# Entry
Amino acid sequence: MINNKAFTPFQLKNFQLRNRLGVAPMTRMSSIRDSIPRQDVLDFLVSRALNGAAIVYTEAIVTDYESAQGYPGQARLTTQRQINSWRTVNEAIHAAGALSIMQMFHCGRLAWPEINPAARSLAPSALPIKQQNPLTSQPYPLADEMSVFDIHHVINGFVETARGAVAAGFDGIEIHGAHGYLISQFLSAYSNQRNDEYGGTPQKRYRFAQEIIAAVRAVVPQDQLLFFRISDWGVVDMEVSLFNSRDEYQTIIRLLSEEPIDAISVSTYDYKLPAFGTDKNMAQLTREVSRLPIIICGRIYDRTSAEEALLDADIALSAKSTLLNPDWFEDVRTGKEMTAYTSEEANIAYTETPLP
Ligand SMILES: Cc1cc2nc3c(=O)[nH]c(=O)nc-3n(C[C@H](O)[C@H](O)[C@H](O)COP(=O)(O)O)c2cc1C
# Structure
């Protein structure tokens, strides 16, 4: 074995993780009533904690009511009823020995106008979207360029949702800055063409993320966790999600490393792929410039890939394998031979068909 780390404990601030493996955030689009996920979707999270996960993420929870939602049936966390249902899930995850993390996001230019009450979408710049909405096969509407007023309102949506997560007893929160959604749209020189203090240099494009982190940290108790997810890949018009160079990526990582966050969560398509024309993968390029704990995700599907990914990271998450194999954590522990699942197989996530 190249490494033997997956089943060693990890001290993350004041939390001790029993191993280095977790369930990645997965949107399920099941929250039809009260913006609360279907019971089997909530049960899924608890079952993976019972199977041995050290850390379990929610799906991406939508921040504000006006413009944040990108897919039908997404969950929210700003009413007492929503808080109560997540509190029950958190208690069960904790009883099973795992940590629970709430991920939250705003879709920006990829918002779904029929669902957002204001029927409009917001983005750093008003630029047409080349690809169609994959769910409707319709073009995305042109977003409004966010004013500074809009920016403050949207930040407040992150804060409100973070308050909901604290009330619901999560151990931590992840700000979703990856995959081409709003924060990623601000980071990107392709989708952020602003001339004000939120656009231009990488430092200025980073300002929106920085303000969200500061505002959210202020309402998350110091002994609870705050993570930031970043990626060099994503959904719809891939240019949005791609950093221009290693230098640009590492500039953002250096800035993030100065923030009051507890880990950087690096989402990849495949953890082992070299990035930016170097011979290093994303975790290695992150580690080069940051001392923060690193969470890695992307095509980690068996013990060998988990151990290899953990050479350069502290925690490894899996999405599709944890979705489709109820025994995945135990199977990794015993070193069972497994193959990676395809995205098509994972589409069951968005249906009412029971998971295997
Ligand atoms: C059904 C499904 C839903 C997803 N939803 C989210 C999400 O809400 N937030 C997020 O950051 N990533 C989301 N992802 C991406 C995963 O967290 C992960 O980064 C990606 O699937 C690669 O990991 P894997 O190779 O283990 O599947 C989703 C992936 C799948 C398959």
About this structure: The two ends are 29 Å apart (CA to CA). The pocket of flavin mononucleotide is lined by residues 24-27, 59-60, 103, 176, 178-179, 229, 267, 297-300, 318-321, 346, 349 (CB under 6 Å). The longest helix spans residues 148-167.
